[in-house]
Amino acid sequence: MVIGLTMSDKNEKREFQADVSQVLDIVTNSLYTDKEIFVRELVSNASDALEKLRHLQLTEKEVFDDNLSLEIHITTNEEDKTFTIADYGIGMTRDELHQNLGTIAHSGSKQFVKALEEQAKKESALIGQFGVGFYSAFMVASEVVVHTHSWKLDGEHLVWTSDGRTGYEIEESQGERRGTKIVVKLTEEYEEYAKEDRIKGIIENYSAFVAFPILLNGERINKVEAIWRKQKSEVSDEEYTEFYKFTSKAFDEPQYRMHFSSDTPIELNALIYAPSENTELFGFGQMEAGVSLYCKNVLIDDKPDGLLPEWARFLRGVIDSSDIPLNISRESMQDSRLVQKLNKVVIKKFLKFLDGEAKSDPEKYGKFYEKFSRFLKEGVVTDFANRDNIAKLLRFETSMTEPKENIGFEDYLARAKEDQDKIYYLITPDRKTAEAGPYLEAFKARGIEVIYFYDAVDDYLIQNLAQFQEKNLVSIDRADVELDDSVELEGESLPEADIETICSFMKDHFGDRVKKVAAGKRLIDSPVAVLTPDQGMSAQMRQMMKAMNPDEAAPPIDVEMEINPRHPLIKQLFETKGDNPDLAQLVADQLLDGALLTAGLLEDRKDLISRNIALMEAALKKD
Ligand code: ADP
Ligand code: MG
Predict the structure, then answer these.
(1) Which of 72, 128, 139, 360 is spaced 20 to 30 A from 27 at the CA atom?
(2) % of the chain surpassing 90 pLDDT
(3) Which among 523, 504, 521, 524 is positioned nearest to 577, based on CA atoms?
(4) To test ligand 1's pocket by mutation, which of 134, 136, 162, 214 has the most ligand atoms within 8 angstroms of CB?
(5) Per mean pLDDT, which range of 70-74, 367-371, 530-534 is the poorest?
């Protein structure tokens, strides 16, 4: 022993950090109705510690107690009312004990506290996903004692003790092996967890896939297997589902699973799941990447950020490749050519898989799409390499589908007319608005299908996508839409000269409010419509900019007006302009505001109302 250092210098008492107390309080008193999950949490920590050790053995020259087998030993003692779990994993140094068990440094708890602060929905099943791990032992314990010795050669033998209320104590001790042994002293209420049968049932339930042998009172109880390296025919549906729940700590059922292996361009086995619940929709913030990276059954990283594209963060599962070096670091992950290869192969395969599923079972895909479309849209915007394949998976209603019936771009193109070289769409709050507005008329008359986009992000999505299979996406409210003459327009038109007169009358009156007034052939039932000029900003983009900078003046409205020279109202307006120009101006203003309103561009509605009253007065006046 080092001279001058007495035992008492090495023993210390500390209080928990404030947020630890908060978590402890919630965990022990209200979080889990199922107290038994503490077993799963402690087993999962033991397994993590072994996994890390296995990794260190491959990358470090020397490890303390190198000959110990990588196993988890659980013992129950009914007499003493204890549950003990020991692993020969990496153990903890003094600093690590403070860090890991005395502060909230680890990911799960941190997120958990954050979610509480944000007053997220407290659905208990989902909260379980945060796994506030180690502290769950205090739900059933009067005291927890952690014996530990780090893998580092200069490590100390340490004993950490706490009642889970005020604080903890660390003492030095003798003769510990490498790794961690946790003794849970059960309260009377929970002495059932000192029974072998009870614990056996729990482990079979939660920890069947732990990659290390678990021995209960000396007897092996789990079978260790990496199911992603097995043949599909050797794995049952139940095993697949169980594995999903185990790897992703999920409580839902997987919606899809894809299991495949490949030898070129890189050796890999992958088992990928899509969940059925999207926790981002519950207000829990961004999901973390959830496909783990393994090399020959050894975990390299369970949340590798750069492994798959960001938009694919909702995927869960495992990618195992013997070509990946074990010592690849988090930092170099994104730059690694090998990882990029994995990324490419797996995502390509997954998109193809999803496309197949969407075609063979559209109803099931529809359910998935309802919850996960935002991820696909994000992919279209951010993942250039996979853009077309993701775009294939988008679904929408159109002017030719039934409400709630969805199609994709491929269906659209398959039934488009042969000479149609564009894909037409309209961004609209809903179907009714689209069908009541003036834009659809020309397309309906010509039998051209128009896609409806309802989502606030869709405009941005389309700006980025721009094309599908080399056909431009064109909004039908744009001035530069070209229409053929195939449709016989009903009603006598105003003569050319009169059209010119009425257009310049309106333009003069509107001034800067519109760029241009002109007659066109797209309108059938409506007298006028406002159009977005070539290069102009769409109404949705404008709304988005306004929402992002509410204090700044909105960008000026940028529209052209098309008039329908066959419409009785326009013809009447031409007449009225001669006898009663004031009334004609009133009508013109009302037409413009009405058209802006339909386009989602009218900022101030008060004139619309007062003008309406003036018009009614004029209409009812007897002279
Ligand atoms: P999480 O597992 O989500 O990180 P836990 O509360 O379960 O959170 O555990 C906290 C931390 O304590 C772990 O991250 C780990 O560093 C450490 N730890 C817990 N159990 C062990 C163990 N058996 N061996 C080594 N370290 C452990
Ligand atoms: Mg844990």
Answers:
(1) 72
(2) 58
(3) 504
(4) 134
(5) 530-534
Note the pLDDT of residue 127.
Answer: 41
Distance 105 CA to ligand 2 centre (A): 12
> Which residue type occupies 181?
K
The token pair at 95 is: 């600093």
Strand-pair partners of 74: 85, 216
| Residue nearest atom 11 of ligand 1, based on CA coordinates | 100
Q: Do 324 and 341 contact (CB within 8 A), yes or no?
A: no
- Nearest residue (by CA) to ligand 1, atom 15, is 100
Question: How far does the centroid of ligand 1 lie from the alpha carbon of residue 173, in Å?
Answer: 21
pTM for the predicted model, two decimal places = 0.72
134: Cβ below 6 Å to ligand 1? Answer: yes
Closest-CA residue, ligand 1 atom 25, reads 91
Angle (CA) 543 544 549, round 5°: 100
- pLDDT given at position 27: 67
Query: What pLDDT is recorded for position 179?
Result: 96
Query: Going edge to edge, which strands form the sheet with 268-275?
Result: 254-262, 268-275, 316-320, 290-295, 298-301
- For residues 527 and 571, the answer to whether their CB atoms sit within 8 Å is no
Mean pLDDT confidence for 311-316: 96
Q: What is the 3-state secondary structure (H, E, C) of 10-24?
A: HCEEEECCHHHHHHH
pLDDT of residue 574: 96
Q: Which two tokens stand for residue 7?
A: 């035992």
Higher pLDDT among residues 6 and 484, named by residue: 484
Which residue bears the tokens 């529809």?
366
Q: How far is the CA of 302 from the centre of ligand 2 (A)?
A: 12
* Cα 134 to averaged position of ligand 1 atoms, centre (Å): 6
Residue 132 has pLDDT above 70, yes or no: no
Residue owning tokens 């949340």 = 303
Q: Which of 25-29, 120-124, 448-452 has the lowest mean pLDDT?
A: 120-124
Contacts of 148 (CB under 8 A, 6+ apart): 91, 92, 97, 158, 159, 160, 176, 179, 180, 181
More confident residue, 312 or 543: 312
Q: Classify residue 189 by burial, with Cβ atoms within 10 Å: 0-12, 13-18, 19+.
A: exposed
| Average pLDDT along the chain | 87
CA distances from 118 to 107, 266, 282 (A): 17, 43, 12
| Ligand 1 pocket check for 155: Cβ under 6 Å | no
Assess whether pLDDT exceeds 50 at residue 99.
Answer: yes
Q: Which ligand is nearest to the CA of 132?
A: 1
DSSP state of 396: B
**27, 106, 210: residue to mutate for ligand 1 pocket, most atoms within 8 A of CB:** 106
Domains within the chain, CATH numbers bracketed:
5-220 (3.30.565.10), 227-360 (3.30.230.80), 396-476 (3.40.50.11260), 496-620 (1.20.120.790)
The ligand placed nearest to the CA atom of residue 108 is 1
Question: Quick one: tokens of 447?
Answer: 């039998």
Residue whose CA is at the smallest distance from ligand 1 atom 21: 45
The amino acid present at 50, given as its one-letter code, is: L
